[in-house]
Write a structure and sequence with these properties.
By secondary structure, the protein is an alpha+beta fold. The chain is about 30% helix and about 25% strand. The strands form five sheets. A seven-stranded antiparallel sheet has the order 3-2-4-1-10-9-11. A six-stranded antiparallel sheet has the order 5-6-7-8-12-13. Strands 16-19-20-21 form a four-stranded parallel sheet, with helices on both faces. Helix 5 packs across helix 6 (about 150-165).
Length: about 500
């Protein structure tokens, strides 16, 4: 997953995009980038690191203009350590386009070959975002050849992109001298919403991965970009929208509601917080079916994402809810740290147990999900060291048994604790006294109950169903090989950049 944002305004947007990226920082900590536009000139700064570290005062001053976009990156395709693969990406023809992308293209390899053999375009990195921007550029060139670039030509190009590209993609792009374009894949797998703020003389528009970025910057959430829909906002601030897919079908990624999104966001009409409360409700019933509640003395969440589910579960069981772990907020999310060695090292730096909440108690730990199992095993051990008599564990999500190919960092089957293992084998690995998982159908119902318009989900990591219908065993093997071939060191001091020169703004 990544976090993306685009803004068009009547005033400078650099600070606004920076603020929005801070609100989306949970979606990616590997790299950050901003591009602004003044006239037909783009100004770019991007680098590895957190938003607050990538952008200094001198960088912000070099990003003038009233139109721009930004991204926080969490790599799921390409090289996690390459600054060249940080977004945004840029192509100079036609028009000049910059683009940010959240998701993962499942047919990127085939498209890369098509671009070289047929479209005569060169790809210089392993990033699927570079593939996507070149596909869009080629289709814009075909749609607008010998014609003025109007919204209809842009929508025609996006329709062609939908026909060629497979996988998940939420996109924001700037077209030099024309405006801001945003679109979402025909399944709506990755989130994208649009909001506005009306001033005395103009309307400011923002598109972003989550509603929290809109609300946190003073914009009003209007709606989600529909699956397959394209939204174009011209330089006069006029919004144009059109459905560009032939058979769109909303299948949002259920893992957004389980873990990825902030709880104060609303995605596809569903409050993420309320969805997690519902998951706690259904998980409580699973706990009751698995063991007598009288054996549980206290319910303790594993911060942060599991708190709503744990609170609701505790209430349903009639057991006290306690905070038993203190989180170090200056350590990144372990789930999205590149490299298993970094992840293992960070667990005890991230969490510390409050001994009095564990001592001589039977403790039910609640987590949002269990992916690799290494963190869960460490936390169970911490609970025992803090004096817990028995340690039970409940997961608000079902077992993660299958690779995800749509933009979540879990492509390698051997990394998944639940892949090919029984419940008892997982329990023994984690070291808890009892292990209770959410049910797949109950998880889906917990979310869809909040919006009857939802009829399906992208839940492949739980149920093995890949909604785009184009994922094969060979794809898994290729992704696993690509992941294993990534460098494991983080020494990038002498790594070159591919970025636009930023002349000093007048």
């Amino acid at each position: 997953m990544c976090g993306i944002v685009g803004v068009i305004s009547a005033s400078p947007v650099n600070q606004l995009i920076y603020d929005a990226l801070l609100l989306l920082q949970h979606r990616g900590q590997d790299a950050a980038g901003i591009v602004t536009a003044m006239g037909t000139k783009f100004f770019m700064h991007k680098a590895r690191g957190m938003v607050r570290d990538v952008f200094r005062t001198r960088n912000m001053r070099a990003l003038p203009g009233m139109l721009g976009l930004g991204q926080v990156r969490y790599p799921t395709a390409g090289n996690a350590y390459s600054e060249e693969e940080a977004q945004p990406f840029y192509v100079n023809a036609p028009f000049g386009i910059v683009l940010v992308h959240n998701g993962n293209l499942t047919n990127a390899h085939a498209l890369k070959q098509e671009l070289f053999d047929i479209d005569r375009r060169h790809i210089n990195t392993e990033s699927d975002t570079e593939v996507l921007i070149n596909i869009l550029a080629h289709e814009l060139e075909l749609a607008a050849r010998d014609l003025p670039l109007t919204p209809q030509e842009i929508f025609k190009a996006v329709s062609a992109v939908h026909r060629r590209v497979k996988g998940s993609y939420a996109v924001v792009a700037l077209i030099a001298g024309h405006g801001l374009l945003a679109f979402r894949d025909p399944y709506g797998i990755r989130p994208l919403c649009i909001g506005s703020m009306t001033g005395s003389q103009h309307t400011e528009w923002m598109v972003a991965s989550e509603s929290v970025a809109l609300e946190g910057t003073g914009h009003q959430l209007l709606r989600d970009v529909a699956p397959g829909e394209a939204v174009f906002i011209d330089l006069q601030g006029q919004l144009h929208a059109q459905q560009c897919a032939t058979a769109p079908l909303l299948n949002p990624c259920v893992f957004e509601f389980v873990y990825l999104a902030r709880p104060d966001s609303v995605i596809d009409g569903v409050s993420v917080y309320h969805a997690r409360l519902n998951m706690g409700e259904t998980l409580a019933q699973r706990v009751i079916n698995a063991m007598p509640p009288s054996e549980i003395d206290v319910v303790i969440p594993i911060p942060e994402s599991s708190r709503p589910s744990a609170m609701q579960l505790a209430q349903k069981l009639g057991k006290p809810y306690r905070e038993g772990f203190v989180k170090n907020r200056y350590v990144g999310r372990t789930f999205i740290m590149p490299g298993q060695a970094v992840r293992k090292k960070s667990v005890r730096q991230k969490l510390n147990a409050i001994g009095m909440e564990f001592k001589n108690r039977n403790v039910l730990l609640v987590d949002d999900s269990i992916v690799r199992g290494t963190t869960s095993r460490e936390i169970v051990q911490m609970a025992r060291e803090a004096g817990a008599r028995k340690v039970y564990m409940a997961s608000a999500a079902p077992p993660v048994r299958f690779p995800n190919v749509y933009g979540i960092d879990m492509p390698t089957r051997e990394e998944l604790i639940a892949h090919g293992r029984t419940l008892e084998e997982i329990r023994q690995y984690i070291g808890c006294d009892a292990l209770i998982y959410q049910d797949v159908d109950a998880m889906k119902h917990a979310v869809e109950a909040l919006n009857p318009a939802l009829t399906g989900f992208e839940a492949s990591c739980f149920d093995g169903r890949y909604v785009t219908g184009d994922v094969s065993v060979e794809d898994f093997a290729a992704m696993e090989q690509q992941r294993k071939s990534q460098p494991q060191d983080e020494d990038a001091a002498d790594r070159g950049r591919l970025a636009l020169p930023n002349p000093t703004a007048a």
